[in-house]
Amino acid sequence: MEVGPPFPAGQPVPRPLATPGPPSPWAVVAAAVTGCWTVGLVVVGQLGGWLADQVLLASGLDRVVWLWPATVLFTVLLVGAPALTLALLPRSAAVRTTGRTWLATALALGALGLLRAMPPVHHEAYLAALAATAALAALVLRALARRAAGATPRVPASAAPRRAPASGVTLLGVAGGLALLLPWVWLGALGGLLETVLAGVAAAALGVLAGALLDDAFWSRFTVGEPPRPARLVLVGGLVAGVTLLLLAAGVGQSGAQLPLLLTLPPAGFALAALHAAARRPAPAGPPGAASVGSPGAAPAGPSGPLPAGRPGTGALRPATRWLVGLGVLGPLAFTDPEEITLLLASTRDVPFWVAAAAGAGLAVAAVLAVTYGVLLGWGRRPSRRVAGVTVGVLLVAVGGVAVGVGQPGLHGERLFVVLREQADLAGVPATTGRAGRDARVAEVHRRLVTTAERTQADLRRDLRRLRLDHTPYYLVNAVEVDGGPAVRAWLSRRPEVARVLVSQRVRPLPAPAGRSRGTAPAPTGPEWNVRMLGADRVWSQLGVDGSGIVVGSSDSGVDGGHPALAGGFRGGDDSWHDPWNGTRAPTDQGGHGTHTAGSAVGRGGIGVAPGARWAGCVNLDRNLGNPAYYLDCLQFMLAPFPAGGDPFTDGRPARAPDILTNSWGCPALEGCDPGVLGPATAALDAAGVMVVAAAGNTGPYCRSIDDPPAPYADVLTVGAVDRQRKVTLFSSRGPVPGAAKPDVVAPGDEVLSAMPGGGYAVLSGTSMATPQVAGVVALMWSANPALVGDLPRTRQILRDTATPAVATYAARTQTCGGDRNITGAGLVDAYAAVRAARG
């Protein structure tokens, strides 16, 4: 018999492949040290960058645009240098591959991390850029891999080893990804439609990138010997893959969203290693030329040694990697809002708590996957497509059931706040005072505001109805809140009647209530220290004035209407309570902040400055966050209260407007406000003779830190805080403010005792605590002299003239903020002197 060539004529004969030898001990040590260095550096860098963001946010300082680009570039340099050394120096193919993979992933981290310079409010644009960058990086890696593979002689298909069907491995990758996604479906909530779609596209692109980084050529370097040793592949390869996924996770998501991925994604490297070990395992040999059972069209049997160097291999693992990593990344990207992963919400069981819970559950799932896949696949039999398919089906049903059942179904995206160019002309409103005069002013201002809004919004509202875009019109600021994303925003911005379009932030729902804040301090036995410092107790006892006849409006987290210190002061009726967040029909408060501030204004039993005054309430904060629309909802309700479910335009009752409004809140850019968005609202209330008292903010001791509306507005009485020694607290925000001297006055705001939901009491600190006390002092003044009601200039002047000195404090002696007046205002309010002056 003639002996012919083993391969078809004209086809190159592959060169014998040398089996990779074990790496030198020094190379292994270098790789281990580099891996530990990389893990520590990435974790510290990402956590430190997020904490720096939170400190800036809590301090009221501007966001540092270069913070994250600098962090990721620093990480790339410190990780890339040792990784490059591994890629070039050792003679071991496995160590070189480790270095090259870590270097490539570090460069990908640099490209992805630079995107965090985008403002978090533009989340859709960030997700689109993330998807494009990840896809481009994957294309570059695939091109480089094909180029490297083209330089190596290819083994003909007839001589390729027969592998387990890719479908079984792929299905197990899908199952692993669904398992990682499950905690987020349970504990998280989706955003808007476009946001969710873009998150899915970005997750898919990141899965493709992971598949390009951890392809068959990568895994083949960790297989030594004949037959292959699964322990080396699963353990060593899993460790290297875990570090790779850690680097990739560090670049995924806006600030905060990447933190849970640092926990959940790296353990998946071991699961991928086990899947690759299963993909390499040869299928049972059948008759010559026959396909294996359950695997139509399978390749003929062949030797099962390691894949040739540089050859991409069968590609069995790449789809599994894409599915597992893509679905694992989808959870934090789609089911959390990065702006809600903040320390501002960390004091209760809010978003940070549930994100941590989902991350912990994801870590447990990833660990179970690593162990289960490692044992059953790394050292067991090849995966069965039938079992894998059933597993995927069960997990799909579980994900759907959790989403509809115990999850938070639906879309919960942001809305748009559209400010119109024309605002109502309130010039010439008669400056009448006293009860009747003030009520006439409110009615005239309300009429002008409604007329202007109905005339100028008609075309816009008609087009919104035609497009079936849900919207809410406002008149106190001529504005409309609208459902929609970037496309709707661009369309609205081009309309001639629109001045600007802002994002009206919405918090996503929680899997369980955040919990009601309750106080543990004992009830007071007499007037509290802050009440005595202001001299309010002397006003009650010596002047016989307690605020009777005056109504104070509280816009905050709510008010516990059943609290003993507040129940008797509620004005009652069907127009004294409004809750645009949750639609409650009776005064209630989950957060506690509003109950505390209302108690300091009108609470009885020694905590309130004006215990004889009545109160009306509105909820403009939900879980300590707000947005321009809901802040405006409450201010508009206070100008013309209306019954529950009523139309503010037609059912408003200007004659029922409270006399004084206490506002212990501010609307920063994080919540969607710009500096002037609420300006028309406070101007209208000022024209109506309604006193607006607002907190200066808690972002001191920095100068120019009174910057969140409404505190900087000239027509608002802005209040700073002092301690028991009459020193301005370091947290109290300061001026100067363009066009106005701020704060106007200061009041006790350090360790103030007041009411909390459920009948308890607590000590809190902040300019939030000082503000309602000044509102209470105004209530005492107007109660003592009803003719002063609505006379805002005279009331402010009396407060300034009768204030007593307060002690200024400084961040540094060089930071005087342009003079003590921008720190202390006119001084500490003196209720006794102010009431006597009001009577005179």
TrEMBL record:
Q: Which InterPro entries match?
A: Peptidase_S8/S53_dom, Peptidase_S8/S53_dom_sf, Peptidase_S8/S53_subtilisin, Peptidase_S8_Ser-AS, Peptidase_S8_subtilisin-rel
Q: What's this protein's family per the entry?
A: Belongs to the peptidase S8 family.
TM spans (from-to): 25-45, 65-89, 125-145, 166-187, 193-213, 233-253, 353-375, 387-407
Superkingdom of the organism of origin: Bacteria
Listed name of the protein: S8 family serine peptidase
Disordered: region residues: 285-313
* Taxon lineage: Bacteria, Bacillati, Actinomycetota, Actinomycetes, Micromonosporales
What the entry lists under SUPFAM superfamilies is as follows: Subtilisin-like
Task: Return the Low complexity bias intervals.
Answer: 285-311
Taking every annotated instance into account, which residue ranges of this chain make up the domain Peptidase S8/S53? 547-806
The UniProt keywords, alphabetically, are:
Hydrolase, Membrane, Protease, Serine protease, Transmembrane, Transmembrane helix
The residues annotated as the active site are: D556, H593, S768
Q: Name one Pfam family in it.
A: Peptidase_S8
